[in-house]
Amino acid sequence: VCAGIFCFVCPLCRDREGFQTEMFMMGIRVPARLPLWEGKHTYPAMNRRHSRCDASECVCPGGREQAENEGPWQLLLCCSCAAKGTHRFCSSLERTASSCAGPATGKRQSTWVPLGRGRGWQGLAAS
């Protein structure tokens, strides 16, 4: 209740509208206000998104700061921290940058190997 209706979402799927409607029908009332611990300018940096290419060599004609919504100059952000990113064309950045999520978290090698004709696929046994 201290968080207000703007933070009142389903804990599983993060749905707001349907969840609030159901809770209202069940008799749960939440005040329409901002959370008590937040002021108007409490977290201004959280509204900003990383907006530059961090590739070692950026080849974008518009420079590191240019980004498009789609195409080769779309800025792809790290899915672990969103604090690093590159243009789609500038790098083969994995979905997770190893410098922020730890080594071996971007590319994963398959643990499945073919066993030969007609034998299907089988997982590797732990050694």
TrEMBL record:
GO molecular function per UniProt: ligase activity
Pfam family, one: PHD_G2E3
InterPro entries linked: PHD-type_Zinc_Finger (IPR051188), PHD_PHF7/G2E3-like (IPR059102), Znf_FYVE_PHD (IPR011011), Znf_RING/FYVE/PHD (IPR013083)
Origin superkingdom: Eukaryota
Gene Ontology CC annotation, any one: nucleus
Protein's UniProt keywords contain Ligase: yes
UniProt domain PHF7/G2E3-like PHD zinc finger: residue ranges: 48-98
Keywords: Ligase
Protein name in the entry: G2E3 ligase
Species the sequence originates in: Atlantisia rogersi (Inaccessible Island rail)
